[in-house]
Amino acid sequence: MRKEATLEEWAKLYETASRIRELEPWKLFWDLDIIGIRTGDVPEETAFCSILGRGGGCYGIVVYEGYEAFNGFMMMTMQDRLNLSLEYVMANQRNLTCYWGNRAELSEKQRKTIKELGYQYQGRNSWLYFMSYEPGYSPYNMDQDEVLRMTEHLEHLEKAVVYYKESAMQIDFEHGAMLSAVYSAEEETWSYREEPLPFASFHLGNLMITDDELLDDLKKVPRTQMILEADVRITGVEIRDKSYDKPGRPSASILVESVSGMAIACELNSPETDANVCLAEAVIGVIFRMGAPKEIRVSNIIIESVLEQICEVCNIKLKRVKRLSAIDEFLEMMDRYQS
Questions:
Q1: What is the distance between the alpha carbons of residues 114 and 122, in angstroms, rounded to a whole number?
Q2: 60 by DSSP, 3-state: which?
Q3: Mind listing the pLDDT tens digit for each residue in 101-125?
Q4: Strand order in 177-184's β-sheet?
Q5: What is the dihedral of CA 278, 284, 290, 291, to 10 degrees?
Q6: How far apart are CA 10 and CA 14, in angstroms?
Q7: How many angstroms separate the Cα of 14 from the Cα of each of 129, 148, 336?
C-alpha cells in the first residue's frame, strides 16, 4: 500500500536538491556523462545519475537505480538506432527524477507541498519538483520510500559534484567512462575515480520457451500464406484503479494481418503484465488457431528478439521493417472511432 512522505521528509529532499542547484552541475556535465554512486559491495546496485540542462532547456537530475534501470537509459540513448518511438522509450523508463521546470508542469499536490515548505519560485526553469517513472504507470509523485531514497542519492551526488569541481579531475566520458563514487563502510570514506560503464549499449531481454512439448506442437502446425505485423504500442489511456498505487498507463500487444488490415489480436496489458510475453503468447495463439503465418513483420530489434525463437521453430520469416503500415492504420482508425 502506498505511503506518502511526511512534510519533514520532503523538506530534507528539497533542501538537498536546492544545495545541488547552487553547484550548477549542468555546467560541469552533459546529460550523457554518468556519475555512478555505490554504497555497497554489489555493482548491480549502483545508482547511475544523469545531469540535465547543459544544452539548455530543462534542468534536472535523473537517478537510475541498478543495472535494469540503467538499461532504460541506454535504450533512450539508442532510440533512433533501435527504431523506437519516444513514447515507447519514455514509457519504459524506471528512474527517480528531479526537475527545475515551470509552474504549469506541476500537479496541484506538488504546488501544495512547495507552499507548505515555504519555498517561493519565480520565472522559468525555477520550480523544483520530483517525479517517479516506472514501466506500466504514468509518471507520478514520489511515495515515502522513493523520497527517502532520492534524498540519499542526492546527498551522495552532492559530495561527488563538489569533489569533481574542486579537484578538477578529468573523466573520459566520451569513450565509455563514468565518474564513480564508492563508499567504503570499513573505512567510512568516499573514493572518487574513473571507471568504465557496466555496459555501453542496450541489452535485449531473453524470452525463451523451455516447454519441449509446446515446441514440438509448434513444429507440427501447418503453414499459411498469412503475413502478420506485430508490435507493442503505448496507449493514451490512463487507468486509475484502487488496486494501483498510482495511475496505470497500459501498453497494447497488437497483431494485424498486413494485407487486409484486420486486427488478429489487440491485448491491453495491465501494469504488472510483461507486454512482450503477452505478444509472444498472442502469436502462439494465432499459430494454433489459424496456422503458422508465412511472414511476421516487426519494426525494431526488441520485438524481433521476442519472436525469434517462435519463428525459427515454425519456419516463419521474421522481417524487420521501418514502419508497420497496417498497425498504424488500424490504430488511426481506432482513434477516429473513439473521438
A1: 13
A2: strand
A3: 999 999 999 999 999 999 999 888 8
A4: 127-133, 95-101, 59-65, 47-52, 34-38, 177-184, 189-196
A5: 150
A6: 6
A7: 8, 11, 44
pLDDT in tens, 246-274: 999 989 999 999 999 999 999 999 888 99
Task: Round to whole Å and give the CA distance between 69 and 62.
Answer: 11
Q: What DSSP letter does each residue of 198-229 carry, written as one string?
A: S-SSPPPPP-----HHHHHHHHHSPB-S-EEE
Judge residue 40's burial from the number of C-beta atoms within 10 Å of its C-beta, 0-12 exposed, 13-18 middle, 19 or more buried.
exposed
Helix (H, G, I), strand (E, B) or coil at 284: helix
Q: How would you class 14 by CB atoms within 10 Å of its CB: exposed for 0-12, middle for 13-18, buried for 19 or more?
A: buried
Helix (H, G, I), strand (E, B) or coil at 312: helix
Grid look-up 499459411 returns: 224
The residue behind cell 496507449 is 235
Residue 263 DSSP class: E
| CA distance between the termini of the chain | 35
Q: DSSP character for 46?
A: P
**Lookup: cell for 224:** 499459411
In this structure, what are the phi and psi dihedrals at residue 336, rounded to the nearest 5 degrees? -65, -40
